[in-house]
Amino acid sequence: MTAPTPLSPQSRLDRLLQHIHQHLDEPLQLERLAQLSACSRWQLQRDFQAATGLSLARYIRRLRLSRAAEWLLSGRLRQLDIALGCGFDSEVSFSRAFRQEFGCAPGQYRQAGIRRGLSAPLLRPDNRQLLQLRIDSRPACRLMGLSDHCGGLFAEHPDFAERVPQIWRRLLQRCPHARQAPMAAIEIDVCQPGRLRYWAGTPFGGTATAGLELLDVPASEYLVVPHRGEPGTLAANLAWILRQWLPGSGYRALSACDLEIYAPADTRGGMEYWIPIAAAPKC
């Protein structure tokens, strides 16, 4: 009898994550997780930290507290029931951990009624790099910039990879200080399926620049997708998220502006793509 083929580090991590996500409401003992991963407890924790940037205990607690935040906003469960359902042995320990994670007490979070700082389970879209999504919110703002039309992800002729850098170059020639806080908004063109209106800009500070347009972006809750690298990878991840992950996530996309939030002076690399969402209706 031939010995079973050892799992690759990626397959071992993916199997571990699947187990954690499926048993989040149960005790997750380190010894059992190490057995599942066919390694020692020490190696498990070291490998998990290296792959995700989080300790295993921190990751599990973050997911449980994010689930608790959703339950608080649903308004149907008592705080004590939520604490026990998320693996805490008392309401006091739950409140302490919740405040450390979200910066406020559970009751204050429930009263505010806004999703912010929620972590979604780690994903690996189509066997690519791990992706950590989060649910967050932004207040209304006004964007100052330039806009033009392009073909989006689902257009018959997508040309956003060529058109978007052109729009940014035009903006930065006219408004160099936009490099300090670059931000983009993406509107769906309701008259042309698949076509988008892309705004390259910066938050409006009260002083208009000649030749630039203004766009009001309403307050919303968002699904936040981190990205660093080639535009094609972002496009593939967004397509996978919208088609595969979102329908079963408990959220639905809204017909509002998507946002791109960049680090200062960085309009090509690290950014976050913000998709406006709302809780999906309960069946």
Automatic annotation (TrEMBL):
Q: Which GO terms describe its molecular function?
A: DNA-binding transcription factor activity; sequence-specific DNA binding
Is the keyword Transcription in the record? yes
Q: Which InterPro entries match?
A: AraC_E-bd, GyrI-like, Homeodomain-like_sf, HTH_AraC, MarA-like, Reg_factor_effector_dom_sf, Tscrpt_reg_AraC-type_HTH
Q: Which UniProt keywords apply?
A: DNA-binding, Transcription, Transcription regulation
Sequence intervals crossing the membrane: none
Start and end of every HTH araC/xylS-type domain?
14-112
Q: What top-level branch of life does the organism fall under?
A: Bacteria
Q: What is this protein called?
A: HTH araC/xylS-type domain-containing protein
